[in-house]
Structure formats: structure tokens, C-alpha cells
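Exam revision sheet. Question 4 asks you to relate a sequence to its structure. Input first:
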Amino acid sequence: MAWRSGNDVRFEDVLDSVAMAAGAASSDYGRAGSPASFWRTLSGIGAVSGGAATEAAARAYHEDRSFVSDEEETVPSTDPREIALELGSIDAMPVVELTRLRRRFAAENHPDRVPQRLRAIANTRMTIANTLIDAAIRRHG
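Answer key, C-alpha cells:
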């Protein structure tokens, strides 16, 4: 199945374009003997190596919220009661499920995964969630 982006460009077509720019036949780049020029070209645009282009793209992704309308932009709550509601009935959960819940909450709320302007809020949310989950684990103890 072909991967497609929002503007219907097939991923295979992007690779074909890069391969042709590097002077390789489109059938060559998927093999172990791929031409070095193809990988140099790909590396040059920051797609293979973790160079400055990749870092700049990651920063832009986390900082640019222009694609989010004002109605969609919500600042997560730091109210412990609301965070407790987000976590659900933690007193009824076994320790294994509490551990999974902690990881799931961290995946969605960790300060390293949010834009810079929301990191203090994310840190507070993580602290509250961890405190609530730790207390529920101690009660099982």
C-alpha cells in the first residue's frame, strides 16, 4: 500500500525523485547495493543523518502552531481534580495497569513532547499525575 500525505504525494514518488537526482534508477535504492550518490543526496537534505536540518525541522514542528486554530488551542489543566478525572478510577486499578497508565500519560504529556511555551504546564501535570499514581500504588502495598 502506498503511503500518501495530505496533498496526495506518494512516498515512493519522493524517493524516486531523490534517486533520479542522485543518478540512480528508482529500482536501485531499495537494495543493499544502492548507489552511494543516492544516500549522499538523501543525507544532504537531512533525511538520513540527524544533522542540523533534522533538528531545525523538529524545533519547527514543536514550536509552530500556526496550523491550529484558536478554537483548537487549549491549554491543559493543572488542577489536580481534573488530572485525577483524566487518569480515571486509579484506586480500582491493579499496579500493572497503573504503570501502563503512567507511561501512557507521560507519552501524551511529557515536557519534552510539548512546545516550549507549555513545558512548565506539562511539568506540573506530570508531577501531579505521578503523585496521584504513586499514592494509588502505595495503597495497594
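Marking note for examiners. Helices lie at 11-21, 36-44, 52-63, 80-87, 95-109, 119-140.
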